[in-house]
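Re: weekly structure request thread

Next one in the queue (102 aa):
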Amino acid sequence: MEPLGEVAGTASSVFGAICVVGGALFGYGIQQLYNGTVTPVFTANCALAVGATVCILLAENGRLFARDAAPVAVAPAAESSGRCAGLRLARRRILRNAPRSP
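Done, posted below.
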């Protein structure tokens, strides 16, 4: 959305609408194939999964399984900062407010 600048909100809305309409059309097509068994739903899920994989491979242009030029090192302080501390604090609050069993 960054290249779109001032119209990023509109572009996001249009993209969302296209996704909803596309999903409705795929759903309608799958519903028309339904015959009381799970076979059409299973087949459609497999077909859509293959289609999504093809789209990813085309978008990545052969870079999906390629190694990075230089791996990025993670600082040890970043792994043990805020997020874990926030989870510990939330757990303490839950345990403190939990009803006591007799």
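The CA atoms of residues 33 and 40 lie 6 Å apart. The two ends are 56 Å apart (CA to CA).
Next request, please.
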